[in-house]
Design brief:
This protein has 418 residues and is of the alpha+beta class. It contains twelve helices and 14 strands. The strands form three sheets. The protein has a seven-stranded antiparallel beta sheet. A five-stranded mixed beta sheet has the order 10-9-8-11-12. A hairpin with a 5-residue loop joins strand 6 (156-163) and strand 7. The two termini are 56 Å apart.
Length: 418
Amino acid sequence: MLLRFRYRIYPTPVQQQALARAFGCARVVFNDGLRARQEAREQGLPYVSDGDLSKRVITEAKRTPERMWLGEVSTVVLQQALADLNAAYRTFFGSQLGRRKGRKMAPPRFRSRKDNRQAIRFTANARFRVLDNGRLRLPKIGDVEVRWSRPLPAKPSSVTVIRDASGRYYASFVVQAGSQPLPPADTEVGIDLGLTHFAVLSDGTKVSSPRFLRRAGRKLRRLQQALCRKQPGSSNRKKAVVKVARAHARVADARRDWQHKLSTRLIRDSQAVYVEDLCVTGLARTRMAKSVHDAGWSQFVHMLEYKAARHGRAFAKINRFTPTSQTCSRCGRIDGQKPLNVRAWRCPCGAVHDRDVNAAINILAAGRAERLNACGAQVRPAPRVLAPRREAGIHPSASAVARSAEGIAASSGGENVK
């Protein structure tokens, strides 16, 4: 499987200028290619193929006085910028034609030089390599210092150099890594994600939500207010923008580190992990949007998914419409919807449930049923109680029969007639 390893790099001032030049050239090639296809569409001309586009905006453009400075950077960087444009168009066309799942995607947009995040990519054709002294050699940039937190498991196939909004530089390597199966575990876990508790496990364990964004709210508010007071376009405003970006980067780094540790522990201790397929996009449009974004459910679920695939664990998402909070985990009765302020409820069978723990147990049961049922047969146990009368419905012609049956039951000592 393909994995991405990211490391912090420290380019010198001269190398930072070379990287800025490469960022700018890649952005210009991307915009030129997008503009060429837009003009062809407006004029009614055929779609410009990938080969013709590369010849027009790279090969021929280098021979013109307006774009001759494109030759100062590696050609692979420019080709990869066009590859990103082609991938964006394929995604857009696939979304419009229904070949791509998910929501509709917009067409590609022009890249702005004012965007604080920039990235370029080097493939194996660029002949980048990691030197014996630990430095990363990039063509037409030089040997860049890398802070190696762990060794690469294999030879990388590509590297992406990233400059984030806070001014930090990273090298992101793509590596073909093999699986690393863990020793078998005898437990399986269902996870109910929430806001009060970030995760509630089917064994009753509750993991409190760290709320990194809420805890940093006062500092972020102060920095944002200071940014608003700066004159647009001034040097002080640029410095204030970097300060805000660094504060947000600390929040994101803390959240990512915490989620990595929690997901690793869950995958190590459980043979199978089941979660609910939440509609994060819809929840982000509600009044709980800030808390939903602060939780970072999608990132956490993605960590569980790829770590389970790498370490030989089972992972599954259950249907988001499964009534996990409404179903009694003991008898299977669906007791109806409950407002969020109801944290515990009693089932007519006598069981008293914690709302989140009960949902986690139901997620575990549903995940087991879907994983073990390879043929599509019904393997879940049927509910052992009758549906409420308001849900079942009785035909008017059967009312007399029902009344006579109730009378027979009363005369026979109150036995239940089903």
